[in-house]
């Protein structure tokens, strides 16, 4: 539930006070038996709760989605299989499925624009994780530029795109195998870099461990790492950084 | 070498054109035989090169420090043993040693203020790593608030400090043992959180691996992780975020 | 076989001496060829043998269940697939299947009440493991309170339930991902805490290793850890603690 | 600080109200700059804070010890090197050092007796860890029986002591190398077993990992595991179990 | 190919010299293109080559089996799926499949009896690995006694069988989970013990790693360890030990 | 795209200047949206880009293959499932599938012969990886001799082939299980040895880790290791070595 | 204590019945407070208890040695530092120190000869572990042939010694780095092979893990593995095998 | 012993036939008791045996060095501490110590020039490993160009040196931390690249494991990896490649 959106709807007369009262019963969280939906999270951490579908039944995911959608806020679900999408679509007709990213997104109000993100991948196989990052960042109001397949095996491809990358507020570097992309970008840009190791590869990549260690040990400073394949986490952190910027700008009336 | 500082000194007549010419010979890097000092880094990534003393002789560290100090910029050395400090002090008299953080800092020009950082630790033993983060962030122009020993074994201590923590642009969470601090803070603040696992602990902490995995697997989103004991990396990344803010503010003339 | 229950049945005339003699042939264990059923265990360790179905055929599980059910005691089977349940149901009509917990339970005599347990989970996905713990503890005579989805990403949900948690004799904390729940609870209650890491998560959680290490390295004392996903072990240990209490109370005639 | 002990001293006239007021300023914690001493812990978790000396300077340890000793409670410090002992002895004359256990203990009031613990080791080399467990349990009011060198290589030694072990409320099994002791004891007693893996051994024991995995995978149920070499944690958990018993007995007026 | 058996057949007139000449073409190995069948192995290491079916097509396995069967020796295939059995049966009609052990065995001449082996398992789930060991040892001429489900959770079951176990020349201890069985047996018998860790278990057993480390770190001496689930290796080594005995006896004319 | 082949076609009048101009638009790379095809690679590293099919859809693989085939060069795709082959065959009729190696190869111009390679395997199960190495080396112009199933369990088979192996310029040693083959060959030949660990085996081979560590720790010098199961990498490196030889010979006019 | 030796001394009149009675008080074990000396072990497992000095003080080692020496049996101490030797020598004047093997041996009666062992090493650096194996086997009555520095990097050295190796009843293969020696020997001899991985090496040998995995994954069957650097365990197991032979021979009156 | 050099000395009359006969007694190896010096190695693998000093006493190292120096060949010792150097210098006066590389080299005949190698490092701290590689390659007749401190954090430094690097026959890339240098170079040059991970770094680099995994997973093909810190292995392999070139050139009379 997006409390701020709800209150504005009340103010604008879109929702009656009685309706709002009913809706607000779920504050600070709704005890749904199997889940305690954290309706308070947006006030506390800036973004509403996101549904992590893995390990949840389609019915559970749909019930939580419906709960979160009350009041007009946007809802994002990650690691969503087609079955999750079907169930959510059944209760929220505007749901959109991004197959590569495995996300379901219900946009009831376009998010306020808060800043720019460049999402880069080393290879074609890293695209699903990158898409999860991009969709997440977009849901939180970021403008996302996608720059795929610019890994260090053909580093001239990266250099060609460097001007574009340097224009973004935040850079997300998604790479599997040896994960060197994050270090190279970290040495070339003056903006925060978020590194996402992927489990792409074979042999001694041990499910993404090789890329993870590479990124943690990056000789370039200014690189923060999220979990293997965690595109969502990277998109969220990029959103946090851009929202910091946006809030400070707003405070100053810019 | 701080190229911008140098050029301003030329403009202000503090340095003659001939002197500056001599100094600029080291662009884009100085080949010192054992090291190629990256004088171009500040232009490229926003911060000047920092000396990582581990594995370098005191003489090497001092030579690089002297090289970097030309032109009036500030110089930071990390993982500095007292011998490194002694050697640097011998060539740069204003060097200051922070024993806990194991840093040497030579400030020739106060850095421009770019934003705020809160550095939190779970325990007393995490302080050295936290100090490295704090000193680094300060060297890059951040205002740092230190909040130590607020781990989750006595979580009321953390709650007492929450208002202070929430005021910072960026939060650095430093924790060893099980490293739960980052998750708890990540669930409570709306700003980017940088998590630093430390190697503090015993038994199955495996040199910080337990805290590292905890932080990577954090159930709270918006957390970027740096390497074990890498206070420097966290301070640097916090600096990158604050500088993004500062640059954008400056562009808008705020 | 529940020897004590059998002897009481003899005393009460429910079973003849000859029948009991036949039944007692299986002491201290029954050699079934593929298994040596440990009918002596209840006398020795306080609880009857439990059937671990994984790696056993449905027929084997059913045969052992039937053997253990002689004499009127209760029988618990864990890691039971529907096929195991079907086979057991075929020989013991009162068998009840808990799908989430994957347990089969045959209650022939209600267990004596021995104390209270609170079973908490960090997330919705941890519920199957928590249910295994709860069902096990209940089978051994514990009163179980279930408190699900109170992980540290929304820590206010945990604080709301703290009074309830504090009332239990023993607390079981079930958590995957970073597993911080056990540390936070351990710092807030004055009762033994049993931590169960789960394999829920992705990326660098390595099948539950991240939560396991977190729990072993907990900065809060008073936390005992069982194996990954081992809800049964946690429920059993909680039963042992409550039975200690019950036995001592009984000794003192309370 | 032992708040209950302090209040009783006030009631008994041993401490004036003004003195007590001064002392209570440290509630719920004392901010000592480098440490936030958790004076509230005893009320919250049943036992006062214990000083973990590793990573603390002798002076820090002594300052915290002095702070905790106010009001007449007992103070325990673990992982204490002789230097820590010397510093603590300098501020608290009654400090006693246990060299094997590496503990410092200051007893100002004999702890109330709460129950019994048997501490068993597999070998002679496991004794230091076992002593840490024993000293901790004693400090919290447990009566401890020590049974050392009864590992499974000569299992008749264990069987000889079985009657003694079975009499205890809680059994702590301390073992390195392959750590089989916990499984064997777990299969023989009807009380909670706390397993402590030790780092004793060589080759592929990997600093205690082999014993840790053995204990986590124990085929005997009812075994809770603490971190490698964590005698303190085992003694503390044994104390929690016995205190549960003691509190319930007291409630019932036994 | 069993060269000795072949030569005896020549001597006895069962095979003509011309036939034998043809057959001996495959010495010291047959180059089958995809495999070099090591017909010389029996002369060199005492036992004929065994077919490891995993990773081989049924047709390849059958072709190798046929090749090895020439000359009248016995043939053993391990890790054989039913498809392998079907293919082998198609070319060698006397093939016998042991489903639990996943072995195919073609006995053309009963092996000479060379000594005794006791194969013990900790649990029911370890039986497949134990059967592989037993079948292998039998194929090499050992008399095998099977003693299953005598793990340390109910150690009285083991003690009951101790006399039987002690009578064997060699003891094979097969155990998963924590694998303590090998240590306990090693401390009780005066014969060589071969320990086989199995991948049975869950959670932190990491595919048998926990049992493997337990066995390598056994506090009982006289224990040799083979790879996880490697029943074949254990049976083979037991065969080597018994054959040593048999050969020496034969030398002495006993 | 093979730029040199293209230019020669222009020179020979096989392709018009206008056609060539169109084709060269893809230099230095073609941005296909999901992939940036590195047409410049052959000029830079000596061999054209190879399509790694794993993680790519058949359609993507086919599109890249078509792109690379322009201008008449040869195209190699690895880790190709039958579906990839079908898709590629649909756009490039001359495509040849090697089922064991899982490669698709389109030869438009026979590659220039550059030198010899011996590809050895320890066992039959290592053949697929060895074939990938062989096919790759052949595509780059090497003459390959295959020597399979010469592992150290029957070392006489290796010695028989030693003269053949010693004649090759480069030796590729492919082995799973304990991977000793590389060390043994490394101690016997005076040519560069490329070791390829395979994931063949069971138990504690941990997906090829055992063979990888063996090869990295080889007591024989002159051995370079590639990733587990990475036949392609070994074939490529062998090609690089032979091409060095070929180029130098050509320079000298030999 | 060697009970059989003691009884023979009684029979021969070397010890009076009263003395023997006093000595036998320590059966089945002596409770020395810090250690329970297992005087019964020789009767049970064939060899007397051996003192593992690591983790024991010199005084403890000496006290145990003295205890074990009663009755005229031989005493072996392993992992003995010079300080342990000095202490033991103080109470048992005939103690002999083997510096390479770090063993102390007190021979009061020459052990009966039970069979032959060949101890082979891959390199010079493996000699200390090999010596521990050799000294142990000798103490248990084996005739030991030492064959050092025959690793596979120069395999002709091994082949030269093959006849000697093949003559032994049992072969111990000691190797660090990649540990291939055990596989090669296992493929060449028809006797049981005991493999001892050593921690010799650097880089990715991870304290002997590389050699350990190699040996466990040996493609040659008939190889039993002991813990890293565990020369004692290998010597003991070789002794068990030879004693089996010796006992059976004796039974048959050979 | 350099057999070819010896025979040439005989031919030239520098050594008498009788002297040569005496010297040749050590063929194919010298049994020195603790070591079997492999005098045959140069004939077999192209380079003479090199002394790995780690784990050898200075006296042993010196004795082997003296043995190898007979006949006029050159001798190389690696991992040599100053004590090893002192001992070797005592028996071979021309010994030269390279402190950074920890090598001792005795050159009695300048090695024939066989080709070029470029040795690159990512940082200053990687120089010792790079020097070991360089010294080794030089001892085997390579011309070595050293290019240090060109890691990817300041990638323009690498690009400046690219022309120099591309001129070498073989490139050795030495890097710790995240080890990305090998991938970047592999994507830019058309020559074989040998990657050497170093143990330089901190935190989750796990003694070089991070760089090792990076290099094994390199997205650039044509990269062979040697063990962590194994500069010797890299130099040796580079020598093998250059010698292949040299031999083939010589065969053709170039």
From TrEMBL, chains A, B, C, D, E, F, G, H:
GO molecular function annotation: hydrolase activity
Pfam family for this entry, one: AIRC
Taxonomic lineage of the native organism: Bacteria, Bacillati, Bacillota, Clostridia, Eubacteriales
GO biological process: 'de novo' IMP biosynthetic process
SUPFAM superfamilies: N5-CAIR mutase (phosphoribosylaminoimidazole carboxylase, PurE)
Species for this entry: [Clostridium] cellulosi
InterPro entries noted in UniProt: P2CMN_synthase_LarB, PurE_dom
Annotated PurE domain residues: 115-253
Top-rank lineage group of the source organism: Bacteria
Cross-referenced PANTHER family: PHOSPHORIBOSYLAMINOIMIDAZOLE CARBOXYLASE-RELATED, SLL1489 PROTEIN
Name under which the protein is recorded: 1-(5-phosphoribosyl)-5-amino-4-imidazole-carboxylate (AIR) carboxylase
């Amino acid at each position: 539930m997006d409390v701020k959106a709800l209150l504005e709807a009340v103010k604008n007369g879109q929702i009656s006070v009685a309706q709002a009262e009913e809706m607000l019963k779920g504050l600070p969280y709704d005890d749904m038996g199997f889940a305690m939906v954290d309706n308070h999270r947006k006030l506390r951490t800036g973004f509403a709760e996101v549904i992590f579908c893995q390990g949840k039944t389609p019915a559970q995911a749909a019930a939580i989605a419906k709960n979160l959608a009350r009041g007009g806020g946007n809802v994002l679900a990650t690691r969503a299989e087609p079955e999750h999408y079907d169930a959510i679509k059944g209760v929220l007709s505007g749901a959109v499925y991004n197959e590569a990213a495995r996300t379901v997104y219900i946009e009831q109000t376009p998010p306020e624009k808060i800043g720019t993100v460049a999402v880069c991948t080393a290879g074609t196989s890293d695209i699903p994780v990158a898409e999860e990052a991009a969709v997440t960042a977009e849901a939180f109001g970021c403008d996302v530029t996608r720059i795929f397949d610019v890994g260090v095996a053909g580093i001239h491809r990266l250099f060609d795109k460097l001007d574009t990358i340097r224009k973004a507020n935040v850079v997300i570097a998604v790479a599997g195998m040896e994960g060197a992309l994050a270090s190279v970008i970290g040495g070339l840009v003056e903006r925060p870099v978020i590194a996402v190791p992927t489990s792409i590869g074979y042999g001694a990549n041990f499910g993404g461990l090789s890329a993870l260690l590479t990124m943690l040990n990056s000789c370039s400073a200014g690189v923060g790492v999220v979990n293997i394949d965690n595109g969502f986490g990277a998109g969220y952190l990029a959103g946090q950084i851009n929202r910091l910027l946006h809030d400070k700008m707003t405070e100053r009336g810019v």
